[in-house]
Description:
Blueprint: H1 2-23, H2 27-35, E1 39-46, H3 48-51, E2 57-60, E3 66-74, E4 80-83, H4 85-88, E5 95-101, E6 104-116, E7 121-125, E8 147-152, E9 161-173, E10 182-187, E11 199-202, E12 208-211, H5 242-260, E13 266-269
Antiparallel strand pairs: 1-3, 1-5, 2-3, 3-4, 4-7, 5-6, 6-7, 8-9, 8-11, 9-10, 10-13, 11-12
Amino acid sequence: MISHKRNLLILNLLFVAQFAFSQYNVSFPRTVQQILPSLVKIMAETNEQFAKDMTAEVVTMSNMKIFSVGTGFFVSSHGDILTANHVVSIATGPIHVIFIVGSSVKEFEAKVVSTDTLADIALLKIQRENCPALELLDPINLPIGTELGFVGFPLGYDFPIVSKSILSAKADLPIKSNYPARHQLVLNQFINHGNSGGPVFVSETGQVIAIVSWRPSPDVQNRMIILPENYHTGVRLGGVDPIALSVETYNDNLKYIGDVAQFGLGFAPSLEYAIPWIPNKK
C-alpha cells in the first residue's frame, strides 16, 4: 500500500515537473535564431555639432570620423530596412549598413527612403536582393503581458545583444515634449544607446511589432546649480576658485548619475506607422 502511494507521488511530481517545463518558453531561443540573420548595424556619419544633441550612441573612429550608431532590420527581400529616425536623421555623410551573411561581414551604403519624425521611424534601402526579411505585425490586438524580445547593438558593440521583456503597457505618448502623441509600446526593460532601431518581436512567433526608440530620463537640467553672471570669488586656493570648482564637479556628476539612474523602462513606437511603407514585403 505504501509502495503504491509512493508510486502515485512520484507520478504526480513527474507530471508537475513536465507541466512546469512546458510553461517555459522553449521557442524563444529558436525565435532569436530566426531574428538574428535579419539584423543590421547602422553607422551614420555625422559631425561634432550634430553629435552633441544626439540621443543615439555616438562613436569616434580612429580616423576621427564621428558616427551615430544604431540598429536596423530587413523588412523585405529587396533590401528595405527599418530603423529609428534619430539614428540617421543627423547624417552628414554616408549611412553604412553592416550585417553578417554566413561567416562573412557585408557592408553597404544605404539611402533614406521614408521618415516619420513624429513616430521616430525611418525606412532605408540598400542595393541587395534576397535579404532575410522579418514578418511585421500591427500590435493593436496584442494583449498586455505578452512576452517579447528585442535585440540590437548597444553601446557600440559589434555583436548583437538579446533582451527579454513583456508588453507592460500601451500608451499614447510623444517622442519629444513638443510633439503630438503616437502609439507607443512600453517595455519593462532598460534600453541602452545603440539599441535604437532594433526590432521588438513576439517571443513565440518572431513577428516584429515595434521599433526600439527611447527611454525616460530624469530632469537633470533643472537640478543643476547655475552661478550668477556677476559672481566673483573672494577666495582662491592655488589659483582655483573652490566654489566654482565644486559647482562644476556637482553638475558633471549630476549629468552622469542622471544618465544611469533611470527607470528600467523602454519605449517603442508601434509598427502601424511603418507597415504602409512596405507594400511588397517579399
